[in-house]
Amino acid sequence: MVSAKMYELGTKKSTIRTIFEFGRKRAAEVGEENIFDFSLGNPNVPTPDFVRDAAIEILQTYEPAQVHGYTVAPGNPLVREALAQSINDRFGTHFVGKNIFVTSGAAAAITICFKALAEPGDEFITFAPYFPEYKVFVESVGATLKVVKPRPDDWQIDFDDFRKLLNDKTKAVIINSPNNPSGAVYSRETIAKLAAMLEYQFNQYGRKIFLICDEPYRELAYGVDVPWVTDFYWNTLVCYSYSKSFSLPGERIGYIVVPNAVDDFDKVFGAIAGAARVLTHVNAPSLWQLVAAKCAGQKIDISPYAHNGKLLYDGLIAAGFECVKPQGAFYLFPKALEEDDYAFCERARRYDLLLVPGADFGAPGYFRAAYCIKTETIERSLPLFKKLAEEYGV
After folding, report:
1. What is the pLDDT of residues 134-164, one digit of tens each?
2. Buried b vs exposed e over 337-360: b needs ≥16 C-beta within 10 Å?
3. 29 and 134 share one domain
4. Residue 178 preceded by cis peptide, ω within 30
5. Which are the contacts of 286, defined by CB distance < 8 A and separation ≥ 6?
6. β-bridge pairing 100-103 and 170-176
7. Same domain, residue pair 74 and 41
């Protein structure tokens, strides 16, 4: 009658969304101020004024057909040129409009890339901890996701385990830096070693492995360098979104960068266009394409996230938790106080602390806390974390 797989996906929500929805119901019972919801990566920093001003200017001065009409599938040509120039200004690259495919956010960008590349029997590799939807997206295009085990001391890549998973079925490797959920930023040494291993695989076996970079948190880095990966490996596709940097998660605007150096550029770009077509991606929202072009490269204030991250990190460490200090994004990924991270998060609910089990990210025994929430909420949560830790004798 209907697709069993689609029914399962539609009725069994992600753990993150389930916890978030529980929080909404619980808030109605006990009051919003008594819920400490660390579940969802929904930016609490207001959208910058320059984004609002750009949208107003466009709505008031542009022809309606420019703002609300269709664009060509890869995006408005002028927008693509502007986005390419913004990237060049920041990273010293030499992209032009033809290297950009505008998408409805990062989820669309990475899914389009998966669909464009996947052939029967292909495997994609990613590194734990990882964004859980990768598995859904990869399997939706008929491929298999392989996961490299986590390296909890710093959340960089376990290259020994990665080497074991590389084989003649590997089509692409997915990286996410700054990372959701750990907040880690892959160092230049990590990226260089990853690139060298992929290049070796190509030279030894002739296997063209793509590197897909999922980068919605690129601007959210705290005093560390986020390497521009196309400088290290030629066969790289970069997926970007303005959801986090400009606090626009509901507007769905982003892009894919397809460098000229990518193997079979014309075929890859054509496959991306075909994948977008099959996935009913007619074009990204025209208004937000224009806004992105006007605002690309503008500086944002990440100090509220840096402050929140330090506040929560210091508070949890003082309470006896173990945690690698985040370098970017807006998540903390501490060690749970018992082996069963689901049981730990269930116990935390008794204090209305809503946390996400690490097993959902491929790292059992940990939990994620999103600190893109009100500072006051974090301040009032810290005594509750301390009480929770005391239950475990910490």
Report:
1. 999 999 999 999 999 999 999 999 999 999 9
2. beeebbebbebbeeebbbbbbbbb
3. no
4. yes
5. 66, 67, 68, 69, 70, 71, 76
6. unpaired
7. no
* Omega before 129 within 30 of 0, i.e. cis: yes
Full domain range(s) for residue 356: 4-48+301-391
One-letter amino acid for residue 238 of the chain: V
Closest by Cα among 191, 200, 213 to 259? 213
Residue listed under structure tokens 């030894």? 204
Q: State pLDDT tens for residues 259-313.
A: 999 999 999 999 999 999 999 999 999 999 999 999 999 999 999 999 999 999 9
Distance CA 148, CA 168 (A): 17
C-beta atoms surrounding 135 within 10 Å? 16
At position 338, the amino acid (one-letter code) is E
**Buried/exposed code over 67-101 (b: 16+ C-beta within 10 A; e: otherwise):** beeebebbbbeebbbbbbbbbeeeeebebebbbbb
* 3-state class percentages of the chain: helix first, strand second, coil last, to nearest 5: 45, 15, 40
User: Domain tally for the chain?
Assistant: 2
d(CA 147, CA 347): 28
User: What are the angstrom distances between the C-alpha of 126 and each of 71, 213, 229, 245, 252?
Assistant: 33, 10, 16, 23, 24
Structure tokens at 162: 């990665």
Regarding pTM above 0.90, the answer is yes
